[in-house]
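[Q] Does anyone have a clean structure-token version of this?
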Amino acid sequence: MMGKKPPQESPITDINVTPLVDVCLVLVIIFMVISPLAMQAAIEVASSKARAAKGQSAIADNVRVDLDEKGGVSVNGRKVSWDQLGYAVKKALSASKDKLVGVNASPAVKVGSVVEVLDVSRQSGATRLALLNP
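[A] Here you go.
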């Protein structure tokens, strides 16, 4: 009696893509959950559009804060110390119709200084903030 020969096993040469698809789907779900959280901490920047101004004040009526590379700060052309920045911005905003503060910083100024000026301006009563080109 002749027995059956065991089947010959050939090596598996196909690529199994199931684990790859599983990992990709998990990464997509992780990014979908994390992306709204990352967007909440961002600063909203609105692009300017060319249109006719209706009832808005002139640029000279708004508050302009200048930062120089030496760490000095000035409000509407007058040098102030960092301690007096909030008071100076609040005083200048009292004469402004739009309550707009424009920040002009030289390229050598650190981003942290610009963010600090934006925070102080918002706390001093500014309703609109703008970053100006040097």
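[Q] Thanks! Anything notable?
[A] Residues 18-40 form the longest helix (23 residues).
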